[in-house]
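dumping this here before i forget
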Amino acid sequence: MLTDEEKRRYTQRMLQSRMRVLCNNGFLGLLLMHMRMMVDENMPTAATDGKFIYFGKEFLEELTDKEMDFVMMHEIMHVVLRHLERTGDRDHFLYNIASDIVINSTIKQSAGGSERAINLGKYGTAMHLAPDGKEGVEYTAEEVYEMLVDKMEKQSKKQGGSGKSGSSGSSSGGNSGDQDQNQQNQNSQSGKGSTSPDSSSSDQKDGKQGGRGALKPSTWHKNGCSDEGFDDHTKWGEGEMDPMEKDLWEKRILDAAEAAAMQGRGTLPAGISRSIGELKNPQTDWRTLLQAFIQEDICDYSFSPPDRRYDGGDFYMPDFNEKEETVRNILFMIDTSGSMSKAMLTTAYSEVKGAIDQFGGVLKGFLGFFDAAVAEPKPFTDEEEFKVITPVGGGGTSFDIIFDYVAEKMEDDLPACIIILTDGYAPFPDEAKAMDIPVMWIINNEDVTPPWGVVARIK
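structure:
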């Protein structure tokens, strides 16, 4: 049992570490604010279940402040990158290694490429190189996993075996030593020095390691965590999130990214940048859909700009200006209720961006979000203004509130058109609530058909 003094001291250390991360890496520090932390006397090192970050008592005692900050960042990145739920039917042993390689390399990159940022005393420098010798930050965990599978299958064939061959490198940390660390990481990740015909034979006879071939039980736990590594993955899946919690985390990530960018506090991890920036190609021909709302601005002859043939003269002459097409005052409303997944929100965002792109920057309007309430729509006049608008919401769904908001808050300048991107899973209001404003429903399935308005579908 922990004494009151130990509880106070350990709590203070964890809170101080979180504050240091917040100061040095604003993005991860902000997300750590949403995690609970505790000392688990049964935990050998550190772990997360997606809701808590756990520290073993003895492990916590031996960490320096800098090492503790690294472990904190490592654990929160498993949550942010959703490694706990992305394993699927992959070999947990290899996926654990792959996810750690990506995270450690990402932290190393955020520290200016210094390996000291991912070094833990007796555990050595954490593995950060993919099997091809490149930094893990260049890949997703799935890509590194496929490399590991391919490499182990090739090794197995060379050794004359039929199963996958293991490696004795740590899933999170390597052994300290005098040899070059990069070569050490490559050796540990490729399995050099980790197997022998004798150990492979005895392991398989004993039925250990579940068919992974030559794995030393003295070095590897069944869950794929090394006795010499600091990151325990045994709690993965214990704190499984429901859809609402997943949506909430997506919003926390977007909010933290925006806050960190505005304050200039820390760089965004590469995996998160890929995720946020992963806007897909639009599926809708927006120029066709919005044809009725195209406005032609014809200036005929105008002094803005003047006729350049008379430059340098004593007077200005008007010049003929071509007509311009504009689409103004379009209200986009994106459903952010609990039934809308991250992929659905990404698709909806992509459609709005596609509309802006198709009109070459002359589409102007508002982007808002709704679930059981409306988040105030934000104006945008170009793609850059659109990109900084982040989603809010996560509750139930109501379409009535959109039209109530328009009637109450936008009555002095009603939208030319209301475009609602949604899965459609909510009662539809009476058409009269639209106040004769044209409404387009962009539905992301084939199951729901609104009873009125223009309907288009995206996948």
